[in-house]
User: Fold these one by one.
Assistant:
Number 1:
Amino acid sequence: MAGYKPKVISLTKKPSQTFGFYLRVEHGEEGHLIRCLEMGGPAELAGMKDGDRILRVNGAFVDGMPHSEVVDLVRNSGASVTFHILDEASYKKAKSKGVNLSNSQGASVANSVSKQAEKPKLCYMVKTSSGYGFSLRSAKDERGLFMTEVVSGSVAHQAGVRINDRLLEVNGENVESLTHEDVVGKIKSAGNCIMFLLVDEETDKYYKNKHMKMGAWSATTRYLPHKPRKINITKGPDGYGFMLRKETNQKEHFIKDIDRGSPAEAAGLKEMDRLVAVDGKEVESCNHEQVVDKFMQSGNKCLLVVDKETDQMCKLGKVTPMLFWEEMHDSNLPPSYTEAMKSPAPVQPAIPAVDTTVLKPKLCRMEKDPAGFGFHLNGIQGVSGQYIKDVVRGGVADRSGLEDDDIVVEVNGINVEQSDHDEVVQLIRRGGDSLEMLVAKRNVYDQLKAKGVNVTRLLLGETSYAQVHKEYTPEASREEKHEEASREEKHEEARPETPTEAVRERTSSSSSSASVDSLDERL
C-alpha cells in the first residue's frame, strides 16, 4: 500500500459559498471524480486537481458508495469537510492491480502544497483590506520568529506561507537576530507589498545539520506570483524588430519600439521589458555596445526579460531574476513552473485568405471581485484543450464577454492550446486578480482550424495583413538606418529591423473536451 497514500484535504466554506468543485461519476470511469474546479475556490486553493478521486469523506470510505450517498455526506458536513483523495493516475493503477483502497492510509500534505525539498522559499504578498492573514510568534526555547494563524485562502496562504515556517528575511534584510517588536515594525512600515524568505521545519533541520547558511540565493522561487519570461528569438532578414535602450547613468537595458509582425513581437517581447540576460549571461554589468554585440554574434538568441511588475517584486526582495533562470534549469521542477517562464508561442503573421469578419476570437479582460472570476475551467487532467463552463450571469467573466463552451486559446498572453488542465490553472492563478483570456466560440474555433487558420490576436482586427507584411525596399532600409543612427545619439538605442516573415510557426492542436455521460453535483 506504500504507493497509494491519499492526500488528506480539509475544506472550509462560508455560508454563501460552495466548496468550489463538481463531484461526478462518469460513464467508462471508476470512482467519484473531482471536476470543474472553480478558479480561486476552496477546493482549487487547497490543492485538489481535476480527475482526482475521493476515497473518504470525513473518514468514511466511499469508493464503492452510490453517487447520491456521497453527495449527501458532503452536504451534511456543513461548512467544513475532510476528504481522502487519490490522484487519477494512482487510482487507475491501483484499480488495475486489484488493490483494496479501503486499507490505504492518508498522507497529510502541509496545507496541500508540496514542498520543494531542502530549499527555503520566497513568498511575495500584496495586502488586502483583510490584511495578510498570518500572525508571528516567538518562543523562549526557539531561536527566531515563526508563522502562526495562517488563514486558509488568505494572501499569506496563497503566497506559500505555512504554519511554523521560520522567518529569515523581510524585503531582503535578514531579521533572525531582531526582536519580535522590531520585525513587526518592519512589516508594518513596508506598506502594502512585502517579500518574506521562509523555511519550513524539515528544511530548517536539514540546513542546521549540514551547518549551511540560508539566503535568497538558495531559495526556491516557485511560490512567487510573477516570473521572468524566457524568450527564444531568431533574427529575421531585417533584424529582430526592436530597439534596445539604456538611459545615461543607469545599468539597466530596456526593450522599446517593437515592430508589428517582427520576430520580437512574435516571440513575446513587450514594451519596456527589462533585459536581464542573453543566452544565460547576465547583462546588467555590460555597457550598451557590449549588449548590442551579443545580438550581432548570431541569429538565434535566448533572452531573459522581466516586465515592470516582476522587476519591482524582485527589487523589493533584493532577488536577482537570474535565480529564476537557475531554478528553471533544475530538472526536478514540475512542468507547470517552467511553463510560466516560456515566451508565448510566436505569432504566424501569414493569414490565409479567409473571411474573418465573422470568424473572430474574443479577448476577455477581467479583474477578480470578492465572488471570484465567475466561471469554471473544464478539461481533462493531462489532456490538452480547455473550455469555459458555468459562467455566472452578471459576474466578472460574463461582463467581459466570456460564454459557456468558449475554447481557451491564450491565458495572459501565453498560448495554452497544447497545455493540460493543471498548467492552465497555474497560469490563471499566477495572474492574481487580473486575467486576460483569448477565447473563441467552439464553432468559430473549429471552422478556423478546418481552414488552416491559427487563432491569434491578429484575427481581432488590431493588425492588418499589410502591417504584418511590411514591404521591404533598399530605400526604406536606408531611411530606417538613418533614423536608427539619430535615435542612438539621443538614447543609446539599437534596432534590428523588421523581418518580412516570422521564423517559426505556432504549433496548435484542436481542443479536446470532456464529452461523457455523467452525474455531477456542484459542491
Number 2:
Amino acid sequence: MTRRDKRPRKGGDAADPRPAGGRWRLRNWRLGTKLFAVLLIPALAVIALVGLRISSDLRDAQQLAEFATRGRVDSTVAEAVHELQRERDLTVRFVAQNRQGDTAELTAQRNRVDQAIGTFERTLADSKPRLDAKAADSLQQTDDRLRVLGGLRFSAEHSAFPADAVLRSYSELISGLLDISDSAAADVSDPELARLRLAGNALARIKDQMSVKRAVLGEALAVGTLDRDRTRALLGAEAELAAARNDYRTFATPDQQRMFDDTVIGLVVDIGNDMVESALTRTENNQNLSGLDPNQWDTSATHTVNLTHQVQQALLVQLQERTDALAAQARTAALWDGGVVLGVLLVAGVLSVVIARSLLRPLRILRRTALEVAEHRLPAAVQNLLTDPEPAPENLRKRLAVAPVPVFTREEVGQVARAFDAVHGEAVRLAGEQAMLRENVNAMFVNLSQRSQDLVERQLSVLDRMEADEQDPDTLAGLFELDHLATRMRRNSENLLVLSGHDSAREDAGAVSADEIVGAALSEVEHYQRIELGPAPQIAVRGEAVNDLVHVVSELLENATRYSGDETVTVSSAETHDGDWQIEIVDHGAGMPQAEIDRTNVRLAHPPDVDVEVSRRMGLFVVATLATRHHIDVKLSAGAESGLVATVLVPSALIAELPPMPAPPPPAEPAAQPEPELLAPLAPLTPPEP
C-alpha cells in the first residue's frame, strides 16, 4: 500500500500542463510589486492634480460667475436707487409747497421708479438659481426694503409730516439700500474687482449726497428761506459729499478719476455750485432766497446728478466686463488644467488596466474555480459516493480526483491556487470519508433495526400463541401489555429505518378503512387508555400509504399523550369538501410558544437533514419525512384554551372507496351423531368347577 507522504499530490508543479515562464514576466510579479505599481500611478496622478490646482480654478470660476450675475442685478438696483432719489427730491419739494401744485411730474417719476423696481425683481428672480445663498439673501433684503415705499408715498402725500421728515424717511431707505450694496464688496477675493466695487460704492454715495443737496435746497427755495435745520442738513450733505469724493479718489484708478472729472463738469454744474454758495452766503447775511430760481436749481442739480450717474454706469460696465473676463479666464484655465489632468489620467488608466488585469485575472479564475468546487464539484463527488452501489475505500482516491485550478503562475496568486488545490483534495477526501462513515452508520441503523424487527415479530408471534391458549384474565392482561410494548418497539425500529433513509418492509394489503388506521395507530401508543376516539368517516386509504399514515398518527398520538399530563387526548376526523381526510388530535397540556410552533411547522413542511437535533426529536423528523413522502399535510396550532392541535390532512389522491365487507361464512351443518355403541352380549355363566 502506498504511504500517504509518497502519494502524488494533485495540482503540484509536476502536473502543470503549461510552463510558468520567466520570473521577470509581468504575470509572475509578486503581489506586493503589482499593488505598489497600481497604487503608485494614482498617487502620481493626485500629485499632478494638486499641482494644477484644478479645484481652485473651478472654485474661482464659480465665484466669479456668481459675482458677475450679482453685478447684473446690482445694475438694476443702482438704476432703481437713481430713480428713487429723484422721487425723493420731488416729493420733498411737493411737501414743502404745502402739498399743493401740479403732481404730474411726481406721478411720472413714481411710475419710472416702479418700472425700475419691476426690472430689478424680474432680474433677481431669473438670477437666483445662479447666486450663492449669501448673495441671494442680501438681494432679497433689498427687495424687502423696497416694499416699504408704498407706505412712504402715502404718508408723504396724505399725512402732516413736514418736508424734512419725509426727506429723512426717504434717505433712510436709500441709505439702507446702499449699505446692502456696500456689504457685497467684502465677498470679492480679486483685488482689482474689490477696488472697482469700492469705487462704485463711493460714487453711489457721491450721487446720493448730490441728490440730498438737491432736495434740501429745493425745499428751502420752495419756502423762500434756509433755516438752521436746512442749513445744517445742507452742510452735512456737503461734508458727506467731500468724504465720498475722497473715498472715490482712494479706490479709483487715475483713468477713472479723470473720467469723473471730465464728465461731471460744465457750466450747468458750476451754476448749481454757485447757487449753493449763494444760498449759504445769504443765510449768513440774514437775507432771503428770493433772488434764486428754483427751476434753475432743480435743472442744474439734476444735470449734475445725471452726469454722476453716467460715471456710475460706466464703472458698473467696467466692473461687469472685468468680472466676465476673469470668469472666462478661470473657466479657460480650468478647462486647460482639466485637459492636462485628463491626459495624465488616461495614461495612468491604461497602465493601471494593464497591471490590474495581470493581477485580477488569476484572482477571478481562482474565485470562479473555488465557487464551482464549493457549489458543484464537491457536492457532486459526495453524491457520487452516496449513490455508488458498491462503495470501496480503496477506490476513494481514484473516484474523487480533483482537477487543479487553472492558474499556473509563480507569484502569490499561483501559490494560493496550489494551496487551494491541496485544500480541495483534502476536503474531498474528508468529505468522502465522512460520507462513507454516514453510509456505514445508516447501514448499522438498518442492520440493528432489521434485527430488532425480526426479534419483535417473533416475540409478537409467541405472544399471539400464548394469548390464544391462556384462560386466566390476569395473565392474559399481562400478555396484552407485553404485546402492546412489542408493537411500540417495532415502531421505534421503523423510526431507525426512516432515520437511515430506508423504507420499512411491511406488506401492502390493499385499501384500509379509516377506523382500522386510527385503531392501528392507537395500538402503538403507550397511554392509549387516555385517548378518546371520535367516529371516523366511511372512507379508506390506499394501501401504499397505510403503513406510513399509521406511523404518522401514532407518533402524533404518542407526543400528545406524553406532554398532556393526565389529561384526555381527543381524536376526531372528517372528510372535507375537497375529498380530503382531516384528522385532528387535541391535547390539553402546557402547549408551546407560537414561535416554537412556527419553527416546528417549518420543519414539518421541509424535513431537515439528519443531525444531532433530529436524533433528539426523532418523532418529529419521522412524521415530516413520512408525510412529505405521500404529500400529507401536518401542522401544529395552539389550542383554544391550552395544549396543541395537530392536524393531519390526507389528500384526496390517497383516498379510496371503502372495501366491501367480507361475506359471512355459511352456517356449519350439525355433525352426525355417532350411533350408540351396542353393548357386547354377556357371556354365559358357567358354574365353577368343584
Number 3:
Amino acid sequence: MSQRITGIGASAGIAIAKAFRLENPALDVEKKVVENPAQEVERFQESIEKSKNELEAIKDHAEKELGEDKAAIFAAHLLVLQDPELIDNVKKKINEKNVNAEFALDEVTGMFISMFENMDNEYMKERAADIRDVRKRILAHLMGVEFNTPSMITDEVIIISDDLTPSDTAQLNRQFVKGFATDIGGRTSHSAIMARSMEIPSVVGTKTITDSVENGTIVIIDGIDGEVIIDPTEEERSTYEEKRNQFLEQKKEWAKLVNERTVTSDDVHVELAANIGTPKDLPGVLNNGAEGIGLYRTEFLYMNRDQLPTEEEQFEAYKEVLSQMEGKPVVIRTLDVGGDKELPYLNLPKELNPFLGYRAIRLCLDQQDIFRTQLRALLRASTLGNLKVMFPMIATLDEFRQAKAILMEEKEKLQSENVEVSDAIEIGMMVEIPSTAVMADIFAKEVDFFSIGTNDLIQYTMAADRMNEQVSYLYQPYNPAILRLVKSVIEAAHKEGKWAGMCGEMAGDEIAIPILLGLGLDEFSMSATSILPARSQLLKLSKETIASHIEAILEMDSDQKVKEYVQEHFLK
C-alpha cells in the first residue's frame, strides 16, 4: 500500500525513480592520549589539505553549473579551513593535551558551533552550519571514512536525506538525480534555491521522509504540490506520469513566450525582470525572456575575496551586464552588506542584531570612500545601457538625499574630467523598512522609482525572522497588513507619476501575482526560471477584473483567507 507524505514544494516538477538514501556514516570521536603530538598535527594538516582540494573542486563545479553567487558557500567553507582561530587552536590542543587530532578537532569546532548557534542572528547560525560541514569533511579524512556523496550516483534516483548540505547539492548530477526529498528545510534554504536553479523537482520539510523510505523503493516527488508518494500503486504511477507529461508540455508552451511582451488578457503591459548576482547569471536571464534586470545584487563583487574590488573591476562587471541587456532596463543596487552578508576584510563590529544594525546604506554613508568608488564605476558604465541606480535599506528621507547628493557629486567630478556620463539615469530606492512604506507619499516626491523588497519588509513588519523555524509561520506574504503597505507604496508612486516594482520572492509567487497586478505593480522582478510561468499566468489574468476584488481582499483578516480567495477566483 502506498504512503503519501506532505512537505514544501521547493522546486516544481514531477520525478519518479527509486530511492537513494544519502546517509553519512557515524563519525564517533573517542579521546585518545598520544605519544607523538607532532605526528597528530601532521595528520591533521594532511586532512586539511585534502579537504581544501575537495572543496576547490566542488566550488569550481558549482560555479560552472549554478553560477558564482551559488558557489559562494564553498568559498566560505574554504575560509573556515584557513581560519587561524580554528586551526591553531586544534594544533594547540593536540600539543598541550597530548590528544588525538579527531578529539582536538571535535572539541574546538564544538565550542565554535555552540557559540555561533547561540547568537541571535541568521548569519552566525549559517556560520555554525559551515563549521559543522567542514568538521565532518576533515573528520572523514582523519578516520579514513568514505562518504556516500551524490557525485558517486550513476543510476536514475531520487535522493532521500535528512537534509542536503550545500556541498551535497552542488555535486548533484542532473543526468542521474531526478529529484530529492528531505526531512528539514524551506523554500529559502540553500538546497531549495540550488534545486530551482538546476530545475530538479524537490520537496523539503517533510519531517519524516527518512523514517519512511528504504533504499530502492520507488518514490514519486511532486514538487508542484509538495507531496512525496512512497511505493505508489500502478494507478498512482500512471496518474503522476501523466501529470509529469502535462508539466513538461506546459514548459514547452512557456518556452514559446520567451520573446513575447508581458500583457494581461485586457492588454495591460507589466514588466517581468530578473534578479541576478553576477554577470554569469545573464544567460539564464536572456534564455528566459526577461524584459530587464530588476535587481543586480552588487555585494557578490565584494564577497569571497580579501580586499575591496577596485573601481576598474566594478566598471567591467557593470559594463558587461548593461551591454548584454542591449538597452533593456538594469536596476543596480548599491552595496548591501551587513546582516547576513559579512565582509571579513572590513572588520565590521560584531552586533547583537546585525539585520537591524550597521548595514547597507548606513555603512555606505559612513564609509564614503567605498561608496564613492562604486558610484564612479556605475556612472562610468551608464552610457553603455539603460542604468537605474537603487539605494538599499533607506529608512529616512535624509538618507536618500545624502546618497543622491554623493552620486551627483561624483557625476560632476567625472564630467569635469571629461568622462561621459548618461543624463538619463533613474535614481530609486528599496522599500523594505515599514517606516518607509508608511511615508511612501513623501519619498515619492523625490525618487524616480520604488522597488519593494518583500523578503525584509515582511519579516520587519511581522517582527519574525523568516529563517527561524519556530516563528516561520509568521512569514506571511499574503497577510493583509503586508498587502496594505504594498498598496500604499504603489499608489504613492503613481500619484507622482513614478513607477513601482518588486524584487522580493513574492514577485514570482503565483498566489501573489494576481493581487500585485490588481494593486497596480508595474515591474515584477524574480529568479530567471520563474519568468516564463509568471508571463503565462499574467496572460490569462484581467487587471480590471482583479482590481474590482482588491478592496475585499484587503478587508480580510488573515493570510490564509487571502490565499483561499485567490485560489478560488484566479487560479482555476
Number 4:
Amino acid sequence: MPLAPQHTPRPMDRRAFLQYAACAAAATALPRWAWSQSPALQGDPFALGVASGDPAPDGVVLWTRLVLADPAQMQAAHTVRWEVAHDARFAQIVQKGEAPALPLLGHSVHVELRGLAPGRWYHYRFMLGDAVSTVGRTRTAPAAAELPGALRVVFASCQRWEHGHYAAWHHAVADAPDLVLFLGDYIYEYATPKNTADLARTHSLRLATTLADYRDRYALHKSDPALQAAHAACPWAVTWDDHEVQNDYAAGAGRGDADSFLALRAAAWQAFYENMPLRAASLGTPASAPRWDALQLYRRLRWGRLAHIHLLDSRQYRSWQACRTPQSMSAGAVRPADCAELASPDRTLLGTAQEQWLHAGVAADARGHDGGAARWSVLAQQTLFSQRHYPSGVTSTDSWDGYPAARQRLLQAVSGHAPRNTVLLGGDIHQNYVCRVHADPGRSESPVVASEFCGTSISSRSSTTQDKVDAVARHNPHVLLARCDLRGYGLAEITPTRWTTTLRVVDDPLRADSGARTLARFVVEDGRPGPQTA
C-alpha cells in the first residue's frame, strides 16, 4: 500500500527539544484516572485493548499499549510477544515475534506485518509475562489486480465521552464490517462541564494541554468495552480532526502564543500516534527518534480494483479560518460580503502538496493503476464537503464552505479526470447529511459528479436544532437528507455495481445498552453519480 510522499521535518530548536524531552519523561506515569476509576487496570497490562489498522494485500499493523502499575516497570522498556493465526485458538499460527514497548512512546506497540496472504482474515494476540491480551480479528486487503465482490465499511467520527455511551460501536460490530474508517475527533480535549445534569457520564480529567493529559484522555476512551470490541473486530484506518488537539485549530495556529500552542500540538500528535494503529512511516523519522512537528496521515488504501480510499488530513495544512480573530475560541461564521478573505484563491484546506497528491490519485483512479481503474474512488475526510446556503446568509468557516476555492479545485479535478464513481465520506458536524455533489456548487443545474455521505457522531451532540436543519435543507436542493438529532454511524456496502449506505442511529445515547435502528438507506448505482433513496 503506497504511502504519500513524506514531508521533510523542520529542524528542532533547543526549546522544542527540551519540551520533547520533558514529554518523553512523562511517559512513566500510569493514566491518573485509572487509579481511582478502574482499579482492575493495575493488574492487566492489556487493559486498553488491541487494534489493527491500514490493511495492505500482504499485511496490516497490529497495536496495543501497555498499562503498568509498578513504578519500576513504568520506567523500563518491555518486550511484548505477538502471534498471528488462522484460528481464534491459535492452533494454526502463521507468524509470531517480539516487539518493544518503550517509555518514550508511552509503552505503545506497533507491529507491521508482512508476508500474509491477500484478502483473508487472521486472529492476533499479545503477551507480556503470563498476561495475554484479548484476541483481535483482522484482515488483509485483496490483491491489487483483484475485483472483489463486496466490501463492508463502517464510517464514524466524534465520540465525546460525556455526551453519550458508545452503544453505537456494539451495533457496528454486529454489522460485521471488513474495515472501519474513523474520520476524526476520537477524543475531546475538554474537562467535564460544570453542569452534569444531562450527561451520560463524567470524568475527572482537566483540559488537555500536556502529553500526560492527552495520554490520560486516550486511556479513558479506550477503557470503554464497546470501543475496544470495535477495534478488535476488524482493521481500522484513522485520521484526525481538531479535538485530538484543540477546538478549531488550523495548521500551526490555535489559541495562546505560538510557542505554547506548538508544544501542545506536538504533545497531542505524539499521543495520537501512540494510541492509533499507524505505520511507523507516518512519523517521517525513525521510530527510535520520533519528531512530533509533522505526522503523515494522508494516505491511500486500495481494496483491489473495487475501491481506492483516499484518507485525508484537513487540519495539519489548512489556512487559518477566514476573518477569524487570533484569540477567538472557535471559527464561527461570516457573511461573505463582509469577509473578502473567504474567496481568496490562495486559501487551502488540504495544503498544496496534499491537493496535488489527491488530484493525482483521482486521475490514477480514472485511468487505471496497479491492475486497473478503481470501480469506486472514495474521498474519506473530516467534514461536510457540500455547500450549505443558510437562510440567514452566513457561511461556516471551519468546513469546506470556508474554503470555496479549494473545494472548486477538487471538483475540477474530479470533473476533469472523471473517475468511474466518486463518493465522499465525512463527519465532524454531528449531523447526517446525504448530498448530490454538483460540478459547480452554486448552480444546481450543473452536472452531478459525485455522491456525499456525511455521518453523524458516535456520541457528540449537535449544536443546532432540527427545525434549523430542516430550513437549511429546504434552502439547498442538493441536500437529500439532513438530521442533527440522532447519534450513530454509517455502513457502506460496496459491490462492483452498487454502493449502499445505511445510516444507523441509536435509540438513546445516554444508555450503554441502547438499541439501534436504520434511519435511511441510499444507493449509488455504478456509473450514475448521486445518491438515490433505496
